[in-house]
Specification:
44% of the residues lie in helices and 19% in strands. It is of the alpha+beta class and 268 residues long.
C-alpha cells in the first residue's frame, strides 16, 4: 500500500502487518486469504506471509474457515493503557460516578479524527451502540470528541478535521464546518460538551475535559444516557455537576502522576 511518508526510516513490513491486524472488525471476525488481501491492497503471497508470521507470534489463528484474531492482540492496546496509567487514574472516579448516577461512564482520547475509549465503567442497559475499550467514533459527533477538539490549537484542529474517520459508525449528525466551529466555540465558553442523539438514535451524553498539571486537555470523561429515560434537563442539572467533580478528581490525580519523581515506581 502507498504510504504518505518519505522517511528513510519507515519500515513497510511493520506497516503491512498492522494493516492486516486492523482489517478484522465487528461483523467480519473471520476472513479468508483473498478477503485479507483485498481489504489491505496487498498481493496474496504477501498477505499470506504476514498472516503466517502473525500466527507464529500468536496474534492470529487459522482453521478451515479462515483467519481470525486471538486474545493476544489485546496486549497491544493494553500496553498503551497500562503504560499511561489511564485506567488506574480514572477507575475510582468512574466507578464512583457510575454508581451515583447509574449510567455508563468513559474516558477517551483523540486518535486522528476519532475518539478512542481508553477506560470505561459500564452499566448494563439497552443502547444503540456497543462500547468497549478501543471502540472509536467520529469525534465531532460525540461529547467526548467535542471536548477534545475544543482543546486543540487552531493548527492542530485543522489537521485533525482534515483526516478521515476510521470508525465503522456513521454519525447521525452531518454538520458543516461552520456548524462544527460554532459547537466547539460553545464548548470552550462553558467548559463542557453535550450531545443529543448526534452520534446515534437514543443516545445522549455529556462530557468534561481531563487536564494535566499544565492545564492542557489530555483526555475527556463522559457519561451517557438513554434519551427515552433521561431528559436533557436532568442530564445538565443533575448529572453534569457530578461529572465535573469526577473530571476534577481525575485531573488532580493526573497532575500528581505527572509530577512524580522520575524513576518512581507507582504501587497502585
Amino acid at each position: 500500500m502507498a504510504r504518505a511518508t518519505e522517511s528513510p526510516d519507515f519500515i513497510e513490513a511493520i506497516a503491512r502487518g498492522l494493516d492486516v491486524l486492523t482489517v478484522f472488525a465487528p461483523g467480519r471476525p473471520v476472513l479468508n486469504l483473498s478477503e485479507v488481501a483485498s481489504a489491505t491492497g496487498l498481493a496474496r503471497p504477501t498477505a499470506r506471509r504476514i498472516l503466517i508470521t502473525l500466527a507464529e507470534l500468536g496474534y492470529v489463528r487459522s482453521d478451515d474457515v479462515g483467519f481470525s484474531l486471538t486474545p493476544r492482540v489485546l496486549e497491544l492496546g493494553m500496553a498503551y493503557v497500562c503504560s499511561s496509567n489511564i485506567w488506574e487514574l480514572s477507575r475510582p472516579h468512574l466507578t464512583d460516578l457510575s454508581t451515583r448516577v447509574n449510567e455508563s461512564c468513559s474516558v477517551a482520547q483523540l486518535d486522528g479524527a476519532d475518539v478512542v475509549y481508553v477506560a470505561r465503567v459500564a452499566v448494563p442497559k439497552l443502547v444503540a451502540l456497543s462500547v468497549t475499550i478501543g471502540t472509536r467514533f467520529p469525534a465531532y459527533a460525540t461529547s467526548l470528541g467535542k471536548v477534545l477538539l475544543a482543546g486543540l490549537t487552531p493548527a492542530a484542529l485543522e489537521t485533525t478535521l482534515s483526516k478521515r474517520s476510521r470508525s465503522p459508525v456513521t454519525a447521525v449528525w452531518t454538520p458543516s464546518r461552520t456548524e462544527i466551529d460554532a459547537a466547539l466555540a460553545e464548548v470552550r465558553e462553558r467548559g463542557w460538551a453535550i450531545t443529543d442523539q448526534q452520534l446515534a438514535p437514543a443516545i445522549r451524553s455529556v462530557a468534561a475535559p481531563i487536564r494535566n498539571g499544565a492545564g492542557a486537555v489530555v483526555a475527556a470523561v463522559n457519561l451517557n444516557t438513554h434519551a427515552y429515560e433521561t431528559s436533557m434537563q436532568t442530564l445538565v442539572d443533575d448529572y453534569l455537576p457530578q461529572l465535573l467533580r469526577a473530571a476534577e478528581g481525575i485531573s488532580a490525580d493526573w497532575a500528581r502522576w505527572d509530577a512524580r519523581p522520575v524513576g518512581e515506581v507507582a504501587d497502585r
